[in-house]
Write a structure and sequence with these properties.
The complex is a heterodimer of chains A (209) and B (104). Chain A is mainly alpha-helical and 209 residues long. Helix content of chain A is 68%, strand content 2%. Chain A is built from twelve helices and two strands; from the N terminus they run αααααααββααααα. Chain B has a two-stranded antiparallel ribbon. In chain B, 73% of the residues lie in helices and 4% in strands. Chain B contains five helices and two strands; from the N terminus they run H-H-H-E-E-H-H. Classes of the chains: A mainly alpha (209), B mainly alpha (104).
Chain lengths: 209, 104
């Protein structure tokens, strides 16, 4: 669990900045906390709070969040072979496959179930604790971007990515995924570029091992 | 307030379904061969897309702001084989400094 500790620190901070934004968006105290427990997906929760904060329609907020979470169809399928038990247990365990826990549980092309569950639980506690601190502490904590917290997450994903670049195919997949996301961001709604970037993995199959 | 709860319920239900679909649908049977082939390569491309989106993305726009400086600092820290906490602190610190100096 040493691997997850620094990530958990970042997730607490990220959860707090979500709590602050959600409170500012008029979501109250309980709703953001319930959302962190049930949705447990940072970017989608941020999208909902930002749309509501700018006075957008609730339908727009929901669509944005669902698009951002479409990648979990692929992530969920990739963890499926590692999970055991009946449908309810598999459904519950699948909820812990978030970007970070999924990334650090990668092992020889498969997902290490125990590692993913352990990391997922730690991150869920961190995310919810951060959210509580954010909604209660509110603006007394200041603007999270003043502390550069918004740069911490791409940095975290970069660090996780570097740990994955163990061969020409993996590097080709990363390059293709990054380029697809870059090219599509101005053209399609947020969330779609990440889903489309999964095609990078298919492109990489054409690269000699 | 009511709108917040509608969003919480709808997004929560959708996300639980999206995360759970794979684990439930592929219970006790192997993934389709094509997907199994692609799977080991999925993490690099999704992580790269997350890096690009969260460093440069702002809704449907690409912007160069303090986040890029922060991520560049993180990249340097990674090259120097710094521990993860140092990498994250470098990203946040440099982005905060760039912002204090007037970067958006």
């Amino acid at each position: 669990m040493r691997a997850v500790a620094p990530i958990a620190v970042a997730v607490v901070a990220f959860g707090a900045s979500y709590g602050i934004l959600a409170r500012d968006a008029g979501m109250g105290v309980a709703a953001p906390i319930v959302m962190s427990l049930t949705t447990f997906a940072g970017s989608a929760q941020f999208a909902v709070a930002s749309v509501l904060e700018s006075g957008g329609a609730v339908a727009a907020a929901i669509v944005a969040a669902v698009l951002l979470n479409l990648r979990y169809l692929a992530i969920g399928a990739s963890v499926a072979p590692s999970l055991r038990g009946g449908p309810l247990r598999r459904l519950a365990e699948g909820q812990l496959a978030v970007d970070e826990s999924w990334a650090i549980a990668q092992r020889d092309g498969e997902v290490d179930r125990d590692r993913m569950i352990g990391a997922g639980l730690v991150l869920m506690v961190a995310w919810c604790a951060g959210t509580v601190a954010g909604v209660l502490g509110g603006s007394a904590l200041g603007d999270p971007s003043d502390y550069g917290l918004d740069a911490m997450f791409p940095a975290l994903f970069l660090a996780l990515l570097v740990g994955q670049l163990d061969g020409p195919r993996a590097r080709a997949s990363a390059l293709a995924g990054g380029l697809i996301a870059l090219a599509l961001t101005p053209l399609v709604p947020p969330g779609i570029p990440i889903v489309a970037a999964a095609a990078g993995a298919v492109v990489a199959l054409g690269v000699r091992r | 307030m009511m709108t917040a709860w509608i969003a919480v319920a709808a997004v929560g239900a959708a996300t639980i379904a999206l995360k759970g679909a794979g684990p439930v649908a592929f219970a006790g049977r192997p993934l389709p061969r094509a997907f199994a082939l692609v799977m080991p390569l999925l993490a690099p491309c999704l992580l790269a897309a997350l890096v690009v989106g969260q460093t440069l993305g702002d809704g449907r726009a690409l912007v160069l702001d303090a986040r890029l400086a922060g991520v560049a600092a993180a990249a340097v820290a990674l090259l120097l084989r710094a521990p993860l906490l140092v990498v994250l602190a470098a990203a946040a610190g440099v982005a905060a400094a760039a912002r204090a100096l007037g970067a958006a």
